[in-house]
GTPase Era
Amino acid sequence: MADEQFRSGLVCFVGRPNTGKSTLTNALVGEKIAITSSRPQTTRHTIRGVVNRPDAQLILVDTPGLHRPRTLLGQRLNDLVRDTYSEVDVIALCIPADEKIGPGDRWILQQVRQLAPETKLVGVLTKIDKVRKQQLAPQLLALSEQIGPDVEIVPVSATDRDNLDTLVRVLASLLPPGPALYPDGELTDEPDEKLMAELIREAALEGVRDELPHSLAVVIEEVRPREDRTDLLDVHALIYVERSSQKAIVIGKGGARLREVGTTARKQIERLLGTKIYLDLHVKVAKDWQRDPKQLGKLGF
Ligand SMILES: Nc1nc2c(ncn2[C@@H]2O[C@H](COP(=O)(O)OP(=O)(O)OP(=O)(O)O)[C@@H](O)[C@H]2O)c(=O)[nH]1
């Protein structure tokens, strides 16, 4: 059953220069590349594109380049890279099929392992069109020895569009379950608030969808940066239901369910925005709002 869940999350390709990361990204997202994020203040990741599948949404992001430090790198730079690497769901390490795995590749792998031990890893053998079939097996073996037997390796050619489906399938399988972060399937100009409301609604309906058919609407009341902190957003949201019995369902025993909803939604929103948030959720009864044009207007329908 778990495999039938929709999955979504952030994926980044890392690797030495010229290993084919950009070409691969372009091949995966097609024409929809280079749509930059509309929220430069809050997004720490530059979104390179979105790959949509019936069962998953992959958001391909750039991460700060890994450079082998010739000089002593400060702790802060390491922290930044560590944060970013831990925030993505999957890191795909690109190694070209036609070059021997070298110290540069090993150094990057070691950094990834060290900085983001929790982040899922995939090996991508790129440019396989440049080598003969017989050369592929030893290279796969060599990469497997470096990256470990538990990490899946996918050989691809971006230029020939060879095996890209498999790559997307493997990446998608490693994403956490969750709704599409970009619901319309593309990067949209939809205001963040609509997406946030969507994510809260999803979380609130989880597991109780049958008991609350269509009776639930979410309104974001306020989004404000915390005064003394640049890295924290306060988000205040209202969950509207139609009857007090529904309110009880959403809140749960002793507020337990609402807290769960809050945690789930907060994580999703943080992933969407790339920033920490404090999510304040309240549940209100708006009697029969679905039949009341005034209320509907207020709720953004
Ligand atoms: N034959 C072949 N060439 C490829 C393939 N993918 C990338 N290349 C070539 O490899 C070179 C480097 O590709 P990029 O996609 O720019 O590599 P990158 O890793 O993004 O490089 P940086 O931006 O420097 O980190 C380019 O000349 C590409 O045309 C492939 O699948 N097959």
Q: What stands out?
A: The pocket of guanosine-5'-triphosphate is lined by residues 15, 17-23, 126-127, 129-130, 157-159 (CB under 6 Å). The beta strands are 7-14, 46-53, 56-62, 90-96, 120-126, 153-155, 217-225, 232-241, 276-285.
